[in-house]
TrEMBL record:
It is found in: Golgi apparatus. It comes from the Eukaryota. Residues 506-526 are annotated as: Disordered. GO terms for cellular component: cytosol; TRAPPII protein complex. Keywords: Golgi apparatus, Transport. GO terms for biological process: early endosome to Golgi transport; intra-Golgi vesicle-mediated transport. Residues 1140-1224 form the TRAPPC10/Trs130 C-terminal domain. Its main location: Golgi. It comes from Nepenthes gracilis (Slender pitcher plant). Residues 512-526 have a biased composition (Polar residues). Residues 568-657 form the Trafficking protein particle complex subunit domain. This is Trafficking protein particle complex II-specific subunit 130 homolog. Residues 17-316 form the TRAPPC10/Trs130 N-terminal domain. InterPro entries: TPC11, TRAPPC10/Trs130, TRAPPC10/Trs130_C, TRAPPC10/Trs130_N.
């Protein structure tokens, strides 16, 4: 079967669609050919796949071929069985007949002969050529077609259809396609079953010695090709997958040595997408195929099917995996392959896959996740191609054109060198090329970074190329390193980079060393006496690559350093762009850095700066400081060249903020020098500088600073400086952020003096103005260096207090400042609980109680109200307040202080002075409850009077307005007005207890103590008014003189005076008349100032002994009235009408006035005018007449007069009637008879129908 391989390949290349045979019985094909072929390809077909499931196929290609065609007649039976896939899938029999006899005798037997083969699918098309107007011919055609259906159709399957040439029916073509699809489907199912059976038989014999993979391949691919012709691409792809798996299992069978391939011309160009690059007959070997070509052939077939299925993503995914796996296979056979064929093949394969998949990919046709993964694969292919391309360039001496970046170093240093059996030797007549390479090596200088940074370049090779190449030469042993380097003292300098020997120099071999055995193969005739130099290695590799690379464009990219850089840039951009559109955006940014290096090298600093900024942002975000230290100097150099002062300044700050171990001290000092130089220079466009990574800050350890609303203070902040030297800050300020409202902040400003930050830890004290209530955390640290404003928003946390290292940058959750909501910070209350003496100096105590707040430096302003003044003749005293009613523990708990935390204050009284109504509080009283005693005097101009009722408390009330200023800058104020009650020591009431027959009156004076202290009465006397005299001539002293008389608090005492009526003074002596009697009491007080009333304080210049013997005098006016025995007038209330009073009805109220005795005032006049006034409640009565007036009354005894007033009751019920008063007549001269009733009854008004509203 393997002998038919060439024929199979030819058939496969020429046959790409299904074949439909046409059996033209009645020579009708020329007539219907155009109509049949015009319906191709079939728009929609239903076929069965390998698992017998229906599949709808669109645009199914097919070809009509007559059975008399040579393509169908020239096949041998064995060929027809082997290549059954090219045989017709249906037979269309074209017949026509216009006579029944002709049908029975000629047409029917012939059709029976044609359709007698059961393995062929057929159906008959009866062509009616009769004209529609010819009824006889039309009827005959219908009869013949009916007979045809009876003979060749059955109930299970219709095998006949009729085509009218003159007037075709509309549903003919639909019926025709259904029948032909049924034939194709049945034929396909039958042939699939046949191939499956044959393949199963061969698979069962796979372990037998006679098994031939070529036979299996022809059957398997025949089945796959048949699926492909039927557009069943999924089944076709599955067959090729199974074929690849079977080949992988049989290709490396032990005991069978086969050629790998890959040594022919053009094999360096991958054939992953070209299955016809090499005929199968050229790669066949014995009973199988060469692995190098056949694996690529299988993948090419698979990729072609995937493209037909519109799956470019799967082509890229399979292709990348295939390149990686096949690269490992190439590495196993590298010794037999041309020099660097593996690298060249990978490059061509990757580029071919990239071009094919990108051209067949429709953006947006797949899910976003699949699309990103597709671009990721494209980026991987570009990156793989780029890596191999750099390796080839390095081998031929273009290493100086490759940027020694961390990414390139990581790729190339882990990529092994090619491993040919023998390293290529230098061709003859190449001395000029070697000399040119040596010049390139010598002139290749390491690029010095900005700021004079010099670092050992990163390696671009896994091991020293010089050693690797010479080791693989036939004349040198693997271990003779000294011989390779002998005579090259400047070897390290000539390499100039990563080829420096890391091992110490080996000692010279002794003279008696053993003779080496050359490792040259037997067919290597030349003998090399010395190792190859590096330039010779490059020249040898270049000439070997010329023999390997057959693709002109590929070699053109390696012909010069400029062409190499152009191709290198193209591959790098392709990888970066695809990575940016995929998940792996970081890979794209890293490759942007490689593009930036090329731009920087060629002077395109603008584009290089933009790309370097992206790379630096990635490295900084990921915390890759080692990588950032490699790239950031280049960015700074570009920014300085472009005069981007702001960017250059920021780059210098970022360099300073990197780990100290990445740069030398002098390099860091150079960074700081640049920062200071720019800060003090005039920048064209100054911008705020962010130094968050260089200057960090935090609050001091411990609890947060607690303030009250409105309190300023000083806030200490720990600032860490990353500058290597001291730096001077012209200003420094800090913004605090409220935890519950980030939009509002408070600003703390430092002093105007410059602040010097030393490297490491610094403590800075900032003045903090008054803040709103809330909890505050550190916000932004701002300041100024020269003309430059800077800001830092990085927070430090976690380092010990004595550490100078930078703390980790983390936003703190612990507040640095807590400002409490407005609350009571102090309380001012009176220290006395009872009334004080009026008109006497008294101590007023004010209790000053701080509430968890210091009153240090507080000033109390005192303003006394009307009737009260401060006694300037006395000092103000202050002492610690002790509440006698509570224990010491309770007192400490109430005021927020513990007993052991109370300051040691002397218990003695401290004297203070008052200036302009203000008192400065001493420091010892700032945190404890104290009482301030102020000497005051309540002034009352009048004299107390003896009454039966107690004196109103309002009369003795005085006020003291207090204003306490306290806090750091007296920003806190507390205002309170205290009411202090002053009173007389006694309340005096009088009562005549007895009237003697001789006119003597016994007057009892009751003294009620109004103070909460003990009073001692030492003397008392009564100065009588005119008309009264004392009896017995006792000079006004009481009859009961039991002095001293002690009166306790709230108790009573009585004095008894004996008086009698005396003569009244005449009008000439009126100026000496006393209208009131005055009671004089001399007393003393024994109380303390804490509860209330007490002994008046001593003045500064008052002798103490004199004050002790001095009594206080209390005076009270006592009104004595002479008895009135005969009234002058009588006023009577006359009865009201008997029918009662009603609301709204006028009523006459009458009063009668009668003179009881003759008038003594105007004896000459017969009549006297009497003033009257009616008093009535306006809510109950309306007065219709005059309320006030005069009436004439005779002066003679018994004269009478009636006063009538019209009144209108306003309310119903029991109300008080109007009252008549005589203002000019003393009440003692009026006798009411009968008295006015207390209440009278007023009835409701009478109901009136005129006010009724009908319902």
């Amino acid at each position: 079967m393997a002998n038919y391989l060439a024929q199979f390949q030819t058939i496969k290349n020429t046959c790409g669609h299904l074949v439909i045979a046409v059996e033209d019985v009645s020579d009708l094909w020329p007539t219907v050919k155009n109509g049949f072929e015009g319906r191709l390809p079939f728009r929609r077909a239903s076929l069965n796949n390998k698992t017998r499931n229906p599949v709808f196929v669109e645009n199914l290609s097919a070809e009509y071929i007559l059975t008399t065609d040579a393509r169908l007649r020239s096949r041998y039976p064995q060929e027809q069985l082997l290549f059954w896939f090219r045989e017709p899938y249906a037979i269309v029999v074209l017949v026509t007949c216009e006579d029944l006899d002709e049908f029975k005798t000629i047409l029917k037997p012939r059709l029976k002969l044609i359709v007698q083969n059961d393995e062929r699918e057929w159906f008959i098309v009866f062509v009616n050529r009769a004209h529609p107007n010819n009824d006889q011919a039309t009827k005959m055609a219908k009869k013949v077609y009916a007979k045809l259906e009876v003979e060749f159709s059955s109930k299970k399957r219709e095998r006949c259809c009729k085509l009218d040439i003159q007037a075709p029916e509309a549903n003919f073509w639909e019926d025709f396609e259904l029948k032909i699809m049924e034939c194709i489907r049945n034929t396909l199912d039958r042939r699939v079953q046949f191939y499956e059976d044959e393949i199963r038989k061969l698979s069962e014999q796979r372990l037998m010695p006679v098994w031939n993979f070529c036979n299996f391949f022809i059957l398997k691919e025949s089945l796959a090709f048949m699926f492909e012709m039927a557009h069943l691409h999924e089944d076709c792809l599955r067959e090729y997958d199974e074929l690849e798996l079977c080949y992988s299992e049989t290709v490396n069978v032990t005991g069978k040595q086969r050629d790998f391939g890959g040594i022919e011309g053009g094999d360096d160009q991958a054939a992953l997408l070209n299955p016809v690059k090499k005929p199968l007959t050229q790669i066949v070997q014995d009973d199988s195929f060469r692995e190098f070509e056949f694996r690529q052939y299988l993948f090419a077939c698979q990729s072609k099917l995937l493209f037909k299925l519109n799956r470019p993503f799967e082509v890229a995914s399979r292709g990348y995996s295939f390149i990686i796996s096949f690269s490992k296979v190439l590495a196993l056979h590298e010794s037999t392959l041309p020099f660097c064929l593996r690298e060249v093949w990978i490059i061509t394969a990757s580029l071919a896959l990239i071009n094919a998949t990108s051209s067949n990919y429709n953006e947006g046709a797949v899910a976003p996740d699949v699309e990103k993964e597709f671009y990721r694969l494209q980026g991987d292919l570009y990156s793989l191609c780029r890596t191999k391309f750099m390796r080839l360039a390095y081998l031929i001496g273009y290493g100086m054109g490759i940027e020694r970046s961390p990414a390139n170093s990581a790729l190339l240093s882990m990529l092994p060198w090619p491993k040919p059996a023998i390293w290529p030797s230098v061709p003859p007549d190449t001395s000029s090329e070697v000399l040119e390479k040596e010049k390139m090596i010598v002139q290749a200088m390491t690029r010095v970074k900005h700021f004079g940074i010099q670092r050992k370049p990163l390696p671009l090779e896994p091991s020293v190329l010089l050693r690797e190449a010479n080791r693989r030469r036939a004349s040198l042993s693997a271990g003779n390193v000294f011989e390779m380097f002998e005579g090259y003292p400047n070897f390290n300098d000539s390499l100039g980079s990563d080829v420096a020997i890391k091992t110490p120099p080996l000692p010279k071999a002794p003279a008696t060393s053993m003779t080496r055995t050359n490792s040259t193969p037997r067919n290597f005739e030349s003998s090399i006496n010395r190792p190859m130099r590096l330039a010779e290695i490059h020249v040898a590799a270049e000439h070997a690559l010329r023999q390997t690379i057959s693709y002109p464009d590929m070699w053109k990219s390696l012909s010069s350093i400029e062409d190499f850089e152009q191709k290198y840039l193209e591959l790098t951009k392709g990888a970066a762009e695809n990575y940016h559109r995929s998940w792996w955006k970081r890979h794209g940014v890293v490759l942007d850095g490689e593009i930036a290096a090329v731009c920087h090298k060629h002077g395109n600093f603008d584009l290089a700066a933009k790309l370097y900024e992206k790379v630096c942002a990635l490295y900084a975000g990921e915390g890759w400081q080692d990588l950032l230290a490699e790239v950031l100097p280049y960015l700074a150099e570009c920014q300085k060249t472009l005069n981007d002062d702001a960017g250059y300044l920021q780059s210098c700050v970022r360099l300073l903020s990197l780990d100290k171990g990445l740069f030398l001290l002098k390099e860091r000092q150079a960074f700081q020098k640049e920062v200071i130089h720019l800060a003090h220079s005039e920048m064209k466009h100054p911008v705020p500088l962010d130094v968050s990574s260089l200057i960090t800050f935090s609050g001091n350890p411990g609890p947060p600073l607690e303030l009250c609303d409105g309190d300023p203070c000083s806030l200490s902040v720990t600032v860490w400086s990353g500058f290597p030297d001291d730096i001077t800050l012209e200003s420094l300020s800090l913004t605090l952020i409220e935890t519950h409202n980030a939009d509002e902040g408070a600003k703390a400003t430092s002093s105007s003096a410059a602040t010097i930050l030393k490297p490491g830890r610094n403590t800075v004290t900032l003045s903090l103005p008054a803040q709103k209530p809330g909890s505050y955390v550190l916000g932004v640290l701002t300041g100024q260096i020269g003309h430059l404003r800077f800001r830092s928003h990085s927070f430090s946390k976690g380092a010990p207090a004595d550490s100078d290292d930078f703390m980790s940058y983390e936003k703190p959750t612990r507040p640095i400042l807590k400002v409490s909501k407005p609350r009571a910070l102090v309380d001012l209350a009176p220290a006395i609980s009872s009334a004080l003496l009026i008109n006497e100096p008294q101590w007023v105590g004010i209790v000053i109680r701080p509430i968890n707040y210091s009153l240090k430096g507080g000033v109390l302003h005192i303003d006394t109200g009307p009737g009260l003044k401060i006694d300037d003749s006395h000092f103000i005293e202050m002492e610690r307040y002790v509440n006698k009613s509570q224990s010491e523990a309770d007192t400490g708990k109430t005021h927020g202080y513990k007993e052991d935390t109370l300051p040691a204050i002397s218990e003695e009284v401290k004297q203070l002075t008052i200036q302009d109504g203000s008192v400065m509080l001493p420091d010892w009283s700032s945190d404890i409850t104290s009482v301030l005693w102020i000497p005051v005097r309540a002034i009352s101009d009048g004299i107390s009077r003896a009454t039966s009722q107690t004196q109103s408390i309002v009369d003795g009330m005085r006020t003291i307005a207090l204003k306490l200023e306290f806090g750091v800058s007296h920003n806190q104020t507390f205002d309170r007005t205290l009411a202090v009650h002053f009173t007389d020591p006694f309340h005096v009431s009088t009562h005549v207890i007895d009237k003697c027959n001789d006119g003597t009156l016994l007057l009892q004076v009751t003294l009620h103590s109004q103070v909460k202290t003990t009073l001692t009465i030492h003397d008392a006397w009564l100065d009588l008014q005119d008309g009264f005299v004392h009896t017995c001539g006792n000079d006004g002293r009481p009859a009961s003189a039991f002095f001293p008389l002690i009166v306790s608090s709230s108790s009573r005492a009585g004095l008894l005076f004996s008086i009698c009526l005396g003569t009244t003074a005449t009008k000439g002596e009126a100026k000496e008349i006393n209208d009131e009697s005055v009671l004089n009491i001399g007393y003393r007080i024994t109380g303390h100032r804490s509860p209330g009333t007490h002994t008046p304080p001593l003045s500064v210049d008052h002798p103490a002994t004199q004050a002790m013997n001095q009594d206080l005098i209390f005076k009270s006016a006592v009104v004595l009235q002479r008895p009135v025995l005969d009234p002058c007038l009588a006023v009577g209330f006359l009865p009201l009408p008997s029918d009662g009073l009603r609301v709204g009805q006028l009523v006459k109220v009458n009063w009668r006035i009668e003179r009881l005795k003759d008038s003594e005032e105007n004896p000459i006049h017969q009549e006297m005018e009497v003033l009257y006034e009616v008093d009535a409640n306006s809510e109950n009565w309306m007065i219709a007449g005059r309320k006030r007036g005069h009436v004439s009354l005779s002066t003679k005894q018994g004269s009478r007069i009636v006063i009538s007033i019209l009144c209108l009751p306003l309310v119903a019920g029991y109300v008080r009637p109007p009252h008549l008063e005589l203002p000019d007549v003393d009440n003692t001269n009026i006798s009411c008879n009968p008295p006015t009733p207390h209440l009278i009854c007023v009835l409701p008004p009478v109901l009136c129908s005129s006010y009724c509203v009908p319902a």
